[in-house]
Amino acid sequence: MIAAALPRGLVEAAAPPEYRGIARDGVRMLVTDRHTGLHAHAHFYDLPELLRAGDLLVVNDSATLPAALFARRESGGDVRLHVSTMIDEHLWMVEPRAPVAAGETLTLPGAASVTLLTPVDPEHPRLWYASFQLSAPMYAYLARFGEPITYAYLERRYPLREYQTFFARSIGSSEMPSAARPFTREVVERLRARGVEMASITLHCGVASFEAPERPGIERFIVSPETADRVSAARRAGRRVVAVGTTVVRALETAATPDGAVAAAGWTDLFIGEDFQLSAVDALLSGFHDANATHVSMLRAFMSAELLQDAYAEAAAHGYAYHEFGDVHLIE
Question: Which listed CATH number (3.40.50.150, 3.90.550.10, 2.120.10.10, 2.40.10.240) goes with 68-145?
């Protein structure tokens, strides 16, 4: 499997860049020209000079939830629970961070509970359908009792504001759409002055750290009529559509037509891999991912296995950082 062959020399970003003495827009950026196979090194604040006038930059405006809860078993002991994806107000997909059994009910803070129903994929029982009995609507409940999802590579826990991007407007992601994290008001103003157009989609990220052979779960998305029209106009004019993050690629390619995109909303289970023919997106700004993460499969739609391996080797040789608070990769 080619993903497993990617270099592992990338550094784990154990803290947001601001906690490491780096400005939010000061993270490093590897620039890969997928047509020539050449790489260049820059910083994120160089992005306005690297994009072209007329490029359409599409961002994800989803805001991050404090989606981690501590639950208590009836027999005693805590289970950390990651709330992933809403099916309806009471039925959600969740990731228990410990083995659970179908029918098991866990006690939650605030006189609430959750019952684990069945695995979403019985062959890979990581995500479960779960029924919640809460004292308030989910978003309000999480605002009171939840905290941001974190993993062991982080030095400590950080406040929710560190998991929000400049574009965050629509609440619903369990994990941050992190490719957009380096954006600042200054960078956005310089992009607009450069003549780069901007549009947004909404895709609420579920638990994002899937690894092969798992497939990413379903996610809720909206491509508005305005954004669809802008994408279609850019495609007709031969201008580039630049996606900020794999979430934007997933949403736009779900809504893609031969001529651009159409307005669309609902659920997407689209899996984008090496054999996928991109119809709406020309370039991608992405973070760096773990070698086995399914995000890497999407990168194979933009470049060959050899060029992807070469790009990650270049990043590893220069000590680039990965994960949600790490450096970024512009694939043109």
Answer: 2.40.10.240
